[in-house]
Amino acid sequence: MKLFDFLTEKAKTSRQRIVLPEGTEPRTLKAADRIIADDIADITLIGRNDEIKRMANDMGLQNISRATLVDPSDNHVIDRYAPLLYELRRHKGMTQDQARLTAANPLYLGCLIVKSGDADGMVAGAQNTTGNVLRAAFQVIKTRPGISVVSGAFVMLLPKDSPYGSNGVMVFADCAVLPDPTAEELAQIAICAAETAHDLVGIDPYVAMLSFSTKGSAKHERVDKVVKATELIHRMAPSLIVDGELQADAAIVPSVAHQKAPESLINGKANVLVFPSLEVGNIAYKLVQRIAGVEAIGPILQGLAAPVSDLSRGCYPEDIYKTIIMTCCQAIGAKERK
How far, in Å, CA of 45 to CA of 57, rounded? Predict the structure, then answer.
């Protein structure tokens, strides 16, 4: 079964509620219409109700009438969600008037709908920058207990006959958010990446903490950071199969692992690769994507208390459709861990 067939079936088995703050964005409307038609998720669209209905009619979208429409200019909507924002941000000096004004921002309103329990996840970014999407998520949804950082993972779809990963799938992290994580942050990234591998791909994670050293072959403070992070993971998530520090070949090639790290639990079969810094992870996924022709799906945001997915402003309706499905699966996984 192809990855998105698997994810779609998973989403359908436990229907989730996804809010789309960019409800008057044409690509978003097309994706929402298809999600509803395929009976995958319940959709909430934020925007002026009359404009959404007019656009849906002009575009010939038959299913938008089945979505929940939330108008940010409706005082009843602001009355419902602004008090929650005020409680979350008053320690930062936010006034009640500022909370009402901010709650009318569709990105913040979408996050408030999730935070209040009226939705399970949010997808945005077709119109808004990553910075704006993340800022709203950080301030309202926040990180989940035990996690202090948000990171970005990519699901790498290798050729089916590839000897690497699990059934042609690997997860790379962090490739999108945190430039130079500490050992503590690196440990959190690894734990979240393992959860992404389980929730989105359905594989048992084998996590490799990568470095330019394998088991003490080099001495450097950057190696020490990876070693410390690995030790922290063993304490934080003792059931997780993880090893480090490992060079990339020792992580994914069994013959090299046998030579360089014969006692490694990974044994050259890593399917989750955790990079020591953002520059390494970003360069690695782009090189693999371009040189090897591997499909890279992401970035998938990790570490938030509820899933928020960021889109590229150059995305297509198909991209939004798939991202909604992934967000559903993240939400399912988060609920299963509670």
Answer: 15
How many contiguous H segments (helices) and E segments (strands) does the chain have? 13, 11
For strand 16-20 and strand 121-124, is the pairing parallel, antiparallel, or unpaired? Answer: parallel
Cβ atoms of 252 and 271 within 8 Å: the answer is no
Which residue type occupies 206? Answer: Y
Model confidence over 53-78: pLDDT tens digits? Answer: 999 999 999 999 999 999 999 999 99
Report which residue type is found at 246. L
Whether the link from the prior residue into 299 is cis, omega within 30° of 0, is yes
- Of the two residues 295 and 266, the one the predictor is more confident about is 266
What pTM, to 2 d.p., does this model score? 0.85
Domains of the chain: 3-142+304-337 (3.40.50.10950), 151-296 (3.40.50.10750)
Please say whether the beta carbons of 150 and 158 come within 8 A. no
